[in-house]
Design a protein that fits this description.
heterodimer, A: 140 residues, mainly alpha, 68% helix, elongated, B: 179 residues, Rna Polymerase Sigma Factor, Chain: A, Arc Repressor Mutant, subunit A, 9 helices, 0% strand, globular
Chain lengths: 140, 179
Amino acid sequence: MMDEKRFGELIAAFGAEPSRWPQNERAPALAFTRDHPEIAARLRKEAEALDGLLEAARTAPPPARLEQAILAAAQAETRFAPSWARLAAVLALSAGLGLGWSGASLRAGGSGDAAYAMAFSSFEEPAFEALTDFLQDEVR
Amino acid sequence: MQAFVARTLPKISGAAYRLLGDSTEAEDVAQETYLKVWRNAGKWSPGTARFDSWVMRIAVNLCYDRLRKRKDVQLPEHFDREDGAAPADAVLAGRSSEEAVRAAVAALPDRQRLALELCHFQEMGNIEAAEIMEVSVEAIESLLSRARRTLRERLMGEAGDLIASLSESQTDYNRGDAT
């Protein structure tokens, strides 16, 4: 239940920006801000100031040379690695299904993981062989 | 593969830098992480954690290993740090700018710093952050609450000055006055 106490706890932990609030509590918390604008504004005010200050502490993006070094190491490492086929499947599915940090709706044990499991169980199928051949060519 | 690295590297290097506070070490951890991924992809098991969370967990564990090694080295009394960095309190006492904010964040305990990096700076959901840190979502909320409370106590007393200072430096930068 979203009341003043819980709303205050959310703000204290996740800050004033709704996009950072837990997904399952975002709608009730936004409803609380609509229903109790003065209370919500008071609770969010201090958190907004801290959010603003924290912008100064963002880390710099990694240098381009680091990505190049990692890709070069990957080429050397995966060309002869026995686990290459499995890795290729994971990366291909990861990209194709949009999993990962951007795939917040796909929970462990959900439809995304079922797709992974299907890929791993079909290692012997011709379509999978074609996929790994293609990916190996891409890396080379 | 390039898309995978491009997507995950900023997250990995960001978390590594936040934990280790050293860009060279953060880069080393990023490279070690991907080597472990290439070599151990077969050990990832669908149904336990998302692949990206599993990769991130490898990076975090590598950072924890390095932090443990640092703590194993007992520093003599009155030890002067080789990098010349001042303790957080000294930095905070002497400055009112970005450095004060960075120092306050850097002075947080490791797990609070990581939770803040994942949930605030990287805007990850609490469930993903909990997966990476191998704790409950309640623990993530607790870590974030404590981190923000500490930062408020350290920074908000001088928040007006800090905000004015940060705003001024941003204005100077936009005008092209920054050197």
